[in-house]
Amino acid sequence: LSPEAIVDPALMLAEYYNQAFIIPEFNNTGQHVCIELAKVYPRERLYHDTHWVDGRAERSRQVGYRTTAGQKRARLLDQLADAIFQNEIMLHDERTIKECFNVVWHAGGQVSAAEGYHDDHAIAAALIVEGAIHYPQHLKQQTRLPSGDFVRTSAIKRKKQQNTRDSITGY
Q1: Could you tell me how far CA 156 lies from the centroid of its own chain?
Q2: Where are the beta strands (DSSP E) in 38-102?
Q3: N or C: which end of the chain has fewer CB within 10 A?
Q4: How far is the first Cα of the chain from the last one, in angstroms, to the nearest whole number?
């Protein structure tokens, strides 16, 4: 599945869920998905990482969450574990629950799925918790953006952009 094929369904889901706050994973092909989403979706409704500069938090320009960066994966899954134990999130999907039970913390702080298992669903659930924690304050007062035809117009815009893209670079 190409990254381009993920963007339109993500936009449709976001529209269906009242212009949802999207937290794409910024790894491998997810980088391209983040770039494409940033072109057509309101940036304030896309997750941006937070960096600390001189003791204060600054929002990064990069869209998405990089789960492969050092201790970020462990922190992300710690937040999920806390949310589960405090009954702040309820998991219904059997595969997600199974993956959560098969997350392994290694010496040195690294986290991964147990051998023979995956952690994609556990990471997705953890990103939901991250989104709930870092949901922009100014969006909490809004219930819906005024653009009801957002998905249709963005799909047309994307189609026009694709017709002018370079076949080698994709830009």
Answers
A1: 24
A2: 48-53, 56-63
A3: N
A4: 19
Say how far apart CA 144 and CA 16 lie, in whole Å.
11
Residue with tokens 């035809």: 149
Residue entry with tokens 């670079």: 169
For tokens 């009801």, what's the residue? Answer: 148
- Provide the 3-class DSSP secondary structure of residue 163: helix
Which residues are registered as beta bridge partners of 113?
103
Q: Which residues contact 131 (CB under 8 A, 6 or more apart)?
A: 21, 23, 47
pLDDT digits (tens, 9 = 90+) for 121-165: 999 999 999 999 888 877 776 655 455 555 545 555 555 555 555
Q: d(Cα 15, Cα 152) in Å, to the nearest integer?
A: 10
Short-list 67, 55, 61, CA closest to 129: 67
Residue showing tokens 């990254």: 3
pLDDT digits (tens, 9 = 90+) for 27-83: 888 899 999 999 999 999 999 987 767 777 777 888 999 887 667 888 899 999 999
Q: Which residues lie across from 103 on neighbouring strands? A: 113
Q: Which two tokens stand for residue 129?
A: 């918790």
CA separation for the pair 89, 55 (Å, rounded): 31
Q: How far apart are CA 88 and CA 171, in angstroms?
A: 42
